[in-house]
User: Fold this.
Amino acid sequence: MRFVYFTKLLKELDIPDLIGFCEEVGLDGVDLAVRPGYPVNPENAAKALPAAAAAFKAKKKIIGLVTAPTDMNDPAAPETRALFDACSQAGVPAIKIGYFPYKGRFDIELCEARARIASFSRLAEQTRVKACYHTHSGGNLGNNAAGLRLLLGDANPHYVGVFLDTGHLALGGGPFRMEAEMVRPWFSLLAIKDIVWEQHDGKWRFRVAPAGQGIVRWDDVAAALKEIGFRGTISLHGEYEAASLDERIRLARMELDFLKKKLA
Assistant:
């Protein structure tokens, strides 16, 4: 297994600083957010992404995957093709593509989304960069493994992958073993979140917490990964509050230590 850190909340860090973050925490590399306003973004990715990958490699670190903008869900769009080409040039093996939002006409939207998944599969075959879909709770198609089975259809698992999320599945999925088994041929990446429910002004809300501090059943996650022989990339999403970069480094170290003891 390789442990990487999602850079969504590290927007202020440039590539050398991201490498330094990985070295301080003890990570294998990053899940690089390639989004507007980030050091590597859709506009500069053709040059900036291969350069970033080379910089990580020089320090024996990896870009385990790229996370695209959440609305990058059209494989025919020029910016989508450009990002897949950039990943291919950089040697980045996978892209977390955008979501297919549910707008109120499920059968029609599912049909359209499945056609796009088929096109993503063809794009992935051409570029040798796997297109991965993330289980995000809420109003998205494929927000758990059962929904993903409908969305994937007969998509080739060499080119289309599943990015299971421990926290979002704790909110909207079944037992983790069942979730993993349902998408076993496509299961390529694991996103790490833990979830805490809190009541504010009479209303229940959830927040993300470091792994081990919430409702995720980590023993069940560990058993499922062992049973199916998962050895893929694990992305620490880090979407919890941290007062400073030093505090984020401390929390990331703590979380990584927990995960290595629990999952590795």
User: Anything to note?
Assistant: The mean pLDDT is 96. The chain has one domain: 2-263. The domain at 2-263 is CATH 3.20.20.150 (TIM Barrel). The first strand starts at residue 2 and ends at 6.
